[in-house]
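Issue 218. Parser rejects a valid record. Input:
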Amino acid sequence: MEPVRVGLLGLGTVGQGTATVLLRNAEEITRRAGRDIYVDFVATRDAAKAKALGLTAARLTDNAWDVVDDPAVDMVVELFGGDTLAKELLVKAIANGKHVVTANKALIALHGNEIFAAAEAKGVMVAFEAGVAGGIPVIKALREGLSANRIEWLAGIINGTGNFILTEMLQKSRDFADVLAEAQALGYAEADPTFDVEGIDAAHKLTILSSIAYGTPLQFKQTYTEGISRITAEDVAYAGELGYNIKHLGLARRTAKGIEQRVHPTLIPQRCLIANVHGVMNAVQVQGDAVGPTLYYGPGAGAEPTASAVIADIVDVVRAMTADPNNRVPHLAFQPSKLTNTQVLPIEEVETAFYLRMKVADRPGVLADITRILGERDISIEAFLQKEPAKDESDVDIIMLTQRVREGNMNEAIGQIEQLAAVAGEVTRIRVEALA
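Output the parser choked on:
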């Protein structure tokens, strides 16, 4: 059979990794795909880099439109990033009848519905395994391996930067700002770390996972997103005393009211495997009704780990290029005509347990006032800590773990507690998930 000609957009970290692995493992990849695959056309501003990678036979251009418009290119692999130019390029590639592979989670989360509809109309495929959790094949597992299951919930540590920061805070009792500066120096975090530490990157990924799990259109704007920048070393330590680790968790859950789709700091029991995923590693736990719990663990970023997922997508596309489009694996696991507009619950309607920390005056009656306010909203306390006051201070930290409660009720209670004269400042609130 004729070889498959790939047009590669970008030779950044992932682009270089993809070229390297394609060349190094060419024989093995061909044996799996059933056809030769080679990089025919590359869009890059650095021709010397392409030559150094061994792409000596590839045509080069500094204009990505040349690649997507070239009739000889069978498949476009987009590794630019961003969601503006990348979208325009992929829409044009699809219109030209080319299959598409991308590692761009923002592109899929924000524009996937439009892109998938265009691909369906043209009978081409869009593959995006590398967009979530780097080299971990969790999309393939959800879309194919677990297709017999109703997915009850999934929870993931899906941003390595945030996980590195929380791991350092846990293991070395360091402050957030100090660890963030180190993460930037090591190249784990960007100069502007907002996407990582405020949860936007993880929300892009969770949006994709949730849609695949529940057969809904992509709904990024409905994903509740909260970052880790307000987590303190004290909170990490207190959580540990109570038997929990704090992780930046993305969680999707099917409920009778709708789908929970949220990213936020979370206390997870230390006995859970996912609570012990440390450093820059990623992990996703999926609970299916038939299979029970499954866990997918590995590197969430890096040149060759991400290239592993990109090339797996390339191989999948090559295998299916000659298949009837109606018999291919759907982009979001369910047949496009069977997607449902199930409601994503607003965060106020979500039920979860909570960790509460507040600084209060050390005098009689204060705790009674707080527990009265909680009790009036059917909020039960499961565990309680009171710390000794610091030297020359009269206020003390009290920490509570509550049982599960509707978030709207908790918001009302916290608002009233903060009005008490004996309570200094804001109440710190972190959600708690048993993942059971």
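Fixed in the parser; the record now loads. The radius of gyration is 24 Å.
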